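Write out the 3D structure for:
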Amino acid sequence: MYKKDVNVHIELSDICNAMCSMCGRQYIENGKLKTVPTFNKTQLKLDDIKNIFDDEFFERFNLGRVNFCGNISDPCASSDLLSIIQYLKPNVKRIDIATNGSLKNLTYFSRLASSLKGIDHRVTFALDGLQKTHSYYRINTDYKKILANARVFLNYGGYARWQFIIFKHNMHEVNVAKKISKKLGFQEFVAIKTQRFHREEFKFTHRNKKYHLQEPEETPEYEMSGDVKCKAKKDNEFFLDHYGNVHPCCYLGGAYMKIRFNECEDSIMEFYNSKENNAIQNSLSNILTDSQFLKYLQLSWDDTPSLSCKQFCSSNKNLRKKLIS
């Protein structure tokens, strides 16, 4: 099922400090932004990671890239992130981390940089604008604190990327942000146009402040057509969620998460058995080689592809998400 040289995308927890309105953590009800109350309770600890990525796994697979990101959390919210990095580091080629950068303190980010020395890595800091506009989307985050944490991370030898999501309210700041990123020493800058606007209108009130997220420009109607060209299969990557469940990718991991709220529209998830695909209860190596769900998913591409596969990996889809260097 998976080749020997494999990559993994890990969501360590369901914990985050931010209230980004487009995130699956939040929902809009009666014009108010709210957080799903069942989050902020679960995380994979160091012992879980040791149990999942055990000697058997490293005998059967070579772990290339570990990407700490996910759907609903910030990796830095994990109490064991630094210890987990130290455990995995001798057996991986690259470690990537995506964070809003507003958690923890200067000491933590200096330790994070030190923990990543000697291995290819990249930490992406989410900065969607400048001081007055950044937290319009990333509510509960602090622009000055993020820059301070990023500066310390860079000063201690870390490799960092500034990621900027373009909205109507911040589109005029992209070039200025890029210049600031270079001045601070960020090795990369990327601006993104998100595809999440196709789902709903992001107009709401939070703490007596009115918000209305808008696209920077009009875009074509969202399309899904053509054959499935699976990025995860191409990258030989799987997704590990904060319960220890193994999924083909983060998109199907997101579909699984929606089952608990009775909001899953992807019928393929009827065939997913979390007990069989949980790497805490079962051997990760065996899941990657024998999972019936993974086999069924690939067979479905030639007949009735999963909604998630069509939405995110259709060969002729309209790519509303674009990376702009």
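Residues 5-324 form a domain with the TIM Barrel fold (CATH 3.20.20.70).
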